[in-house]
Amino acid sequence: MVDRLLQSCHDLGAAAGLTHIRRVADSVVLDLAGPVSGLAALRTFSALSVVLDPAEPVSGLRRSLDSGLLSVLGVRVPCYRVAPMTSRAALISAIKGELGWANAPSAWDVNVTTAGHRGELLIAQVGPLHRSRRFPALRRIPASANPLVAWLLVKLAKVEPGHSLLDPCCGAGTILVEADVAGCGPLYGSDIGAAALQAARANLPDAAVRLDSTPAGRLPHSDGSIDRIVSNLPFGKRVGSHQGNRDLYPALLAEAARVLRPDGRAVLMTEDKRIFEQAVQSTRGIKVVKEVTLSTGGLHPSAYVIERTRAHRRATKRGARPR
Fold first, then answer.
1. Does residue 189 sit in helix, strand or coil?
2. DSSP letters along 289-309, please?
3. Distance of CA 264 to the CA centre of its chain
4. Fewer CB in a 10 Å sphere around the end CB: N or C, the chain?
5. What is the DSSP letter of 270?
6. Whose CA is closest to 270, among 282, 278, 260, 261?
7. For 33-77, how does the pLDDT look when each residue is reduced to its tens digit (9 = 90+)?
8. Model pLDDT, residue 162
9. Residue 168 CB neighbour total at 10 angstroms
């Protein structure tokens, strides 16, 4: 994810006032000469922070506010907290005394904490620029895709406005939310869990989406009718089982090979990699063209990018079944 964020920042570049863009641990650090509004719309980061000088942290906070950050906070007197660190008490006192801010650890606008490989960076997280504050909060169910991961999966699918997109294990619909933002449509989602579909409907109140409880191994779509399939599959841990995946994965992949258009693409994420890779090898007409390893929730799943084989594309265009 950090690599994708890094690329997004480079894409914006000097036009948005971004310079000295570099990666530090699991973050991207840059210099910003313009307003933060240009970054607020990015869906590729979870939190935005200001890097402070440890020798003069309060001066750094004051300069940040003078540069227009106060308007982003939307408050006259910010509330703040200071995470456990060396000289925490002195920093709490200095911020209150020099800036007049209110120390409110449970209701903060600015969170002063550390980051980096060894906590070498002193930063001030700007609460209103946290992802959950920038975009509507989503309902979740166990093992729901992280919104940032969902965004990445949709990007890997190389979606274009107007593409039909299917998530056959949609859960709470996080991937469908990101697909809707990307301009995909129509959207289709299936899940055998009633609670999952209820959450998905709540997360997609205005989207052109069709949700149903059809099992992923029996998709209700005609041959060659779907542009993109994107899904966070059951890992066989919190959801499903490894034994269940031995049946689910081959059935789902066979259906994907059937319903994808000749130039279609699927992006499927799982941590049950051996079973998935075996299922791909035994499914006629598809191949893995890329594997991206992710890190989310302490797990390291892979996102597999799947396309039709050349022979299958040719046969499908002729209306024949490939041998």
1. strand
2. EEEEE--BTTB--EEEEEEE-
3. 22
4. C
5. E
6. 278
7. 877 777 888 888 999 999 999 999 999 898 887 777 777 888 888
8. 93
9. 27
